[in-house]
Amino acid sequence: MLKYFLSLLLVVMPALSSAADDSWLMIEKAAQAAHQLNYKGVFVYQVANSMTAIQITHSNFGNSGEFARLTVLDGAPKEVLRQGDDSVIYKSKSQKVLIEKRRIQSGFPAVLPKITDGIKANYQVQVGGIERVSGREASVVTLMPRDKSRYISKLWIDKDSGLLLKLASLNDKNEIVEQVGFNQLALFNNDNMDWFRPNEEPNKAYVMQPEETVVPATEADNWTMNQLPQGFHKIEQVRRMSPFRNVVVTHLVFCDGLTTVSLFFEPADKAATRKQGIMTQGATSIYVTTVADHQVVVLGEVPPATAIQFANAINFK
Amino acid sequence: MDEMKQQLSAMMDDELDLDANPHLLLAAKHSDDIAKSWAEYHLIGDALRHEAMQVDVTERVMQQLANEPTVLAPHPRIKTLSLPRYAAAASVAAVTLVGWMAWHGNTTSTPASVAQSIAKEPVAMTSEAFDNYLLAHAEYAPSNSLQRNRDVQLVAYSEPQRQ
Question: What is the tens place of the pLDDT at every residue in B64-122?
């Protein structure tokens, strides 16, 4: 464990040239701390008028990697056991427990990005004051977008451990649309792994959900993208079978260095009524529309108007 | 089920990493015909504490079985069937409306300028469909972007409350 603290120190030590550099560095350090430290606590995820408390235990065992267990404390019982990039989700139903394996890279508080030129081009960093979060002193850092097509991110970073304590997404009126933050946090330093197991329900059957097969998509020739919202670039393109009907869904992923937007399209179901509309859930917007006989779904952590811009940018030949 | 058995047998042959597939063990424990291949969960912790040590899984599983009282205890026989996804979707269709309405209740207001440019009707998306889009989005988001609250969303919000 000591070596991680030392490596963290090395990151912070060099003389800093400006307050902005200082803040970028603080974000980078928080990103590392979330992966490298051992901690347990309870954080609350708050969106619109609902709140969910989640218990987390996280350990890093060096060569053996990272382990985390998340238990949802409110509502339907669910757990996530995560090792490295693999997450196994246990959803408890009345008669059975569904086991689903997913490739989710990480979660709160390990949510911060690598600092790239892309981020710096699209966001300005602003240093705030010191605020208290879950009984700890936190430095406030704000990532202010250079235009209104993305949300403001506000970070509360523990002065002591460097961990991200709280993260909020704000709209252009400075209203919080979604936030997640610890209300209990403790760091620990031992190798005990007894906690890395799901809660067992002996009377229930455990059923594994089939894993999806996804293939990389070659550049398709039946569509093109027009002007995207400023700063977004396509970073991934895959194809998968629709879980609902026998059609191929193409999935495009766009990123501005910080924020990600997915665009899915598939041939429209001729029999079904055409659907169009927008939903938001916290910072996530989902826009469904039909473009030239294709059903298009845009989903991302952007304001609704930006999601619509993405849908409008696609052209089918 | 067959796929799981194959994975289990691969695990027994040391082809599959025990640490990386703890869910297989749990699945095995709760399905009768492969219950005998169950190795207790604390094997994982154990293996971690001796991280440099090569673990002979087969031997450990056998040893564990010998010491494992719960395997000998009466065990309710529940038939596990992995339904094809479309069957699950069909059953979800019945709760679509409720799912949507529950979700809609949590929806924040849409800015007026946006509302004008789109249809007024809500999107008729089932909670299962929403699950799938959200999961796909979460899986393909790059690690160098702000992950927001992806896995939190998955556990907290992948299913709107169904009445």
Answer: 545 544 433 333 333 333 333 333 333 333 233 223 323 333 333 333 333 333 333 44
Domains and CATH numbers, chain A: 2-207 (2.50.20.10), 214-316 (3.30.200.100)
Residue of A167, A244, A276 lying closest to B118 (CB–CB): A276
Task: Please tell me if residue A130 touches chain B, with a CB cutoff of 8 Å.
Answer: no
Taking all residues of chain B, what is their mean pLDDT, rounded to a whole number? 47
Strands A96-103 and A205-208, sheet pairing:
parallel
Q: What is the mean pLDDT of chain A?
A: 86
Q: What is the pTM of this model?
A: 0.69
Helix (H), strand (E) counts: chain B: 10, 0
CB within 8 Å: B30 and A178: no
Q: Within a 13 Å sphere around the CA of B54, how many CA atoms are in the beta-carbon half?
A: 3
Check A111 against B118: CB less than 8 A apart. Answer: no
- Rounded CA-CA distance A243/A139 in Å is 44
- Taking the C-alpha atoms of residue A227 and residue A219, their distance in angstroms, rounded to an integer, is 18
pLDDT at B10: 58
